[in-house]
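Backbone-to-sequence.
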């Protein structure tokens, strides 16, 4: 068998950009150039002053436009990423009892946070097999329904709709979905994410799009006397976001890269443009896998196959780990599968920044590798 160190994929087959990671994801050169252009007046300045606050305002206004938010919806942001937001939600979004859909590594984490919170009842958790997604069911005792738009570990996406007859808030983990999948804001109360995936920035920041009902919940629980650490206090985040700032110092480069990506999406046509690029990439990837004699989409139901994270299984006699090593040796990186899933597969990001043509070139490169092993 050829060594991965010696196999050289022909240059005309290789993607022009070899970054296919599920996060941190590919950052466009134009974003980096814009940051460099503003560096001398933006980097190293106070996040309480107009230079940075205007950029935060760009982010909030840009997301309002991108998602065509109804009147009364607000964009909140704070430090700590989605992991932090799960903990914050246990203080100021869940009143007493929540229901969670669990269908992979990340969709299970919010439920774990709620279960560990001593002031909340144990959550209802509805599970399904990996590679599928479950469905929420209305329950009068539930005051928050926790959905996941896209399960990053397995490559399963689900449509976001309010459970019929449900009275509680609908909170959606959109970490790997936001910007790459279509969504109707009327179907959620909280749509939260971090910027290191479709928004091609760095991690460590959370963004939450909140409906008037969610804003009211935050304010009600904040005034209820429930003890809350300031870092997890969504009322503090709400008040600071309205001033176009975060409670504590953010990473300024992250905000700038995020603002550039949102502007690019809006300038090119909005969410239909960015989600359309991901959809085109997904059609290319899954069409290739279905036609292959050694690869197949891991998610069996085509309607549940993600447009932003593709998981592709390989025949037992074709070593996906070796393919990933050869790709990496040729400058095509981060196609390895999610470690805890433990399958002979590749996981390929198809966020809007990734050119659909590069996804096609990746498929051709994999064909070449398998043919030369």
């Amino acid at each position: 068998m050829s060594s991965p160190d010696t196999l050289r994929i022909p240059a005309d087959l290789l993607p022009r950009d070899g970054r296919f990671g599920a996060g941190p994801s590919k950052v466009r050169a134009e974003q980096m150039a814009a940051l460099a252009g503003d560096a001398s007046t933006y980097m190293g300045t106070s996040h309480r002053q107009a230079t940075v606050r205007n950029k935060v305002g760009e982010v909030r206004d840009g997301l309002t436009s991108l998602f065509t938010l109804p009147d009364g919806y607000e964009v909140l942001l704070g430090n700590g990423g989605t992991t932090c937001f799960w903990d914050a939600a246990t203080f100021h979004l869940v009143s007493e009892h929540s229901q969670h859909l669990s269908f992979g590594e990340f969709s299970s984490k919010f439920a774990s946070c709620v279960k560990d919170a001593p002031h909340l009842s144990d959550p209802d958790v509805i599970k399904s097999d990996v590679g599928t997604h479950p469905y929420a069911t209305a329950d009068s005792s539930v005051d928050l329904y926790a959905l996941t738009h896209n399960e990053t570990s397995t490559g399963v996406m689900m449509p976001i709709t309010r459970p019929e007859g449900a009275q509680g808030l609908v909170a959606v983990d959109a970490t790997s979905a936001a910007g790459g999948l279509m969504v109707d804001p009327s179907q959620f109360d909280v749509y939260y994410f971090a910027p290191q995936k479709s928004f091609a920035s760095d991690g460590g920041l959370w963004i939450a799009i909140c409906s008037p009902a969610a804003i009211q919940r935050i304010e009600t629980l904040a005034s209820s006397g429930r003890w809350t650490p300031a870092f997890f206090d969504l009322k503090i985040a709400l008040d600071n976001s309205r001033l176009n700032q975060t409670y504590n110092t953010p990473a300024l480069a992250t905000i700038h890269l995020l603002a550039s990506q949102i502007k690019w999406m809006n300038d090119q046509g909005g969410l239909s443009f960015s989600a359309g690029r991901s959809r085109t990439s997904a059609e290319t990837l899954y069409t290739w896998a279905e036609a292959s004699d050694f690869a197949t989409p891991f998610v069996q139901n085509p309607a549940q196959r993600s447009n932003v994270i593709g998981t592709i299984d390989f025949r037992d006699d074709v070593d996906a780990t070796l393919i990933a090593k050869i790709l990496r040796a040729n400058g095509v990186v981060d196609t390895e599968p999610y470690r805890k899933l433990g399958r002979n597969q590749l996981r390929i990001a198809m966020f809007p920044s990734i050119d659909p043509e590069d996804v096609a070139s990746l498929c051709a490169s994999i064909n070449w590798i398998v043919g030369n092993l």
